[in-house]
Design a protein that fits this description.
Blueprint: E1 5-11, E2 15-20, E3 25-26, H1 27-33, H2 38-57, E4 60-61, E5 70-72, E6 78-80, E7 87-88, H3 108-111, H4 120-135
Antiparallel strand pairs: 1-2, 3-5, 4-7, 5-6
Helix pairs in contact: 2-4
Length: 138
């Protein structure tokens, strides 16, 4: 459920290119062209939760879960992408910046500029994404 990195191309001081597996489109684009049944929305939600649980199991906060960072193929399988804002987390919590996540997907603790937050911020973002999927249901 995580996008696969195929190759890294690097030329000193000139180029850094990451080559990932191909996916059809992102969830935002998909939802703009398709309607979902409630069952289909729940299936996609389950896949998003599975990908996030995998990340959290390795103590990784994605911190930018939104439809544009969830890729979907023609069989309606999803993969999480864009880990550019991701950070490791642990106990005790350490401070993080509140300048993460697209505004509409930010958890209350980030909006309130709390520097100490945990995996709950990803869960809030998933809830926001799910609302968008429900709005797109038949």
């Amino acid at each position: 459920r995580i996008i696969r990195l195929i190759e890294v191309i690097y030329e000193v001081r000139r180029l850094l290119c990451l080559v990932f597996e191909h996916m059809q489109e992102d969830l935002k684009s998909f939802l703009s062209k398709n309607t979902l049944s409630q069952q289909e929305a729940l299936k996609l939600l389950s896949q998003i939760l599975s990908a996030t649980a995998y990340c959290h199991g390795y103590r990784i906060l994605h911190r930018d879960i939104k439809p544009q960072n969830i890729l979907i193929d023609s069989d309606r399988n999803i993969k999480m992408a864009d880990f550019g804002l991701a950070r490791c987390f642990g106990i005790p919590l350490r401070p993080y910046t509140h300048e993460v996540v697209t505004l509409w997907y930010r958890a209350p603790e980030i909006l309130l500029k709390n520097e100490f937050y945990s995996a709950a911020v990803d869960m809030w973002s998933i809830g926001c994404v799910y609302v968008e999927m429900v709005i797109a249901t038949k």
